[in-house]
Amino acid sequence: MGQERDVEMKEVADISNSDEHSSPAPVSKTIPTVQSLKEIVSMIEVGAYSKEVRRIARAVRLTIGIRLKITTSVILSFLSTTLQPGSEAHARLTSYLPKVDEKGNTVDLAEFPPQGSSKSPPEVEIYCYLLCLIYLIDQKCYSQAKACSTAGITRIKNMNRRTVDVLASKLYFYYSLSYEHTNSLSEIRGNLLSLHRMATLHHDELGQETLLNLLLRNYLHYNLYDQAEKLRSKAPRFEAHSNQQFCRYLFYLGKIRTIQLEYTDAKESLLQASRKAPAAARGFKIMCNKWAVIVRLLLGEIPERTIFMQNGMKNALVPYFELTNAVRIGDLELFRTVTEKCSNVFSKDGTHNLIVRLRYNVIRTGLRNISISYSRISLIDVAKKLRLESDNPVADAESIVAKAIRDGAIDATLDHTNGWMVSKETGDIYSTNEPQLAFNSRIAFCLNMHNEAVRALRFPPNSQKDKESAENRRERQQQEQELAKHLAEEEDDEF
């Protein structure tokens, strides 16, 4: 406590000795943030001159960490001390910034004349574009952010430097985000395709990952799933450089596979995206779980209750929990009620059309429960229990039962003469080959795992390097022995 008081007293003393026209508040809040930005810029300069991309990536991470502390005055002060005096970038970026700060006070641009150095690398200019763009999006100035991002993308097109790739990938993301907030994503689709082609030619793999995800998001935003699949299948694939971009790719791939009725692959992609996503990306995890729940229901599975009880996801997954309960029970009336009550949520999530496909799953579940409960039941009673609402419910019930029998959902027969559904008696499953097949599949899985483990032990990584080092060691020892023998012979000759 004593140290904290000493620090506070020193700050007050410094403020009291400052210019009487300056206000204390900006000194205590603004200067540390500007100093942090200057340190980040110095890190970018070192990374640019030494061609160390990791330094620039760390600078971007630090910027994201202090983005909430940035104000209009901070950015203006930072731009005036960073960019070249009278440069076009300084004039353009200051024109995008709001003329009123967060407290409603008017900001005088004359108080921040440009004083920057003329020896800054181009990475610093791109960083200034990125910083202004992030601030404008945080302040919900989407029209200014749209213009700022367009100017930044135009500037990046004239560069081909590996140290710019990290900054460019972030700029691509916020470029698309600013157009998405203004409902004009279709305007930049051609530009994103040209940027992706340019990144491919420049071997910018991080830019290719980012732009591919942005293009997929662009297509899926307008429900252009065929175009998205064509682009995804023809785009070059390589080892992922960013975990966040890889998670986004898996999520978009899961959505495409779901629409294409490839539910098994979609389930794997969505679950993998949810597992690999960072813990802080709660909204992304919620969306992955929503789509994964729908896909599992379409596969005929019932998700575990623990999925809906995860911390921070309970309220968001309540509509999907009620939907899962309706499908599990097989109550068509409850399913219809949940669909109507939560239609806005399903439409916002883009899962409404998928939920329409679940209607047959609900009917099939209810029909399975009926076949287990009754050895023989009339089609009229089947229609009543399933709550089929149509002009001819008996005919609909008959077609539904026939389709369920053909698909193997129920083990029954249809008596068209009397209008009955006759369920077959449940036999002893151990008298069939089912247990043998299940046991055989488990044994095969264990054997495959054992073979992979043995193969990994038989061919350890870097075995060739170890072998070469051992050979070099033997050659060196042999040479040392020959040299020692030669020296001993020379000594004998002297004596």
TrEMBL record:
InterPro entries named in the record: CSN3, PCI_dom, PSMD3_C, TPR_PSMD3_N, WH_DNA-bd_sf
Keyword Zinc: no
Biased composition (Basic and acidic residues): 1-22, 464-488
UniProtKB keywords: Proteasome
SUPFAM superfamilies (UniProt xref): Winged helix' DNA-binding domain (SSF46785)
Matching Gene3D superfamilies: 1.25.40.570
Function: Acts as a regulatory subunit of the 26 proteasome which is involved in the ATP-dependent degradation of ubiquitinated proteins.
Pfam families: PCI, Rpn3_C, TPR_PSMD3_N
Family: Belongs to the proteasome subunit S3 family.
Protein name (record): Putative 26S proteasome regulatory subunit S3
Domain PCI: 247-428
GO cellular component: a single term: proteasome regulatory particle, lid subcomplex
Presence of keyword Hydrolase: no
GO biological processes: regulation of protein catabolic process; ubiquitin-dependent protein catabolic process
GO MF terms held by the record: enzyme regulator activity
Region (Disordered): 1-28, 460-495
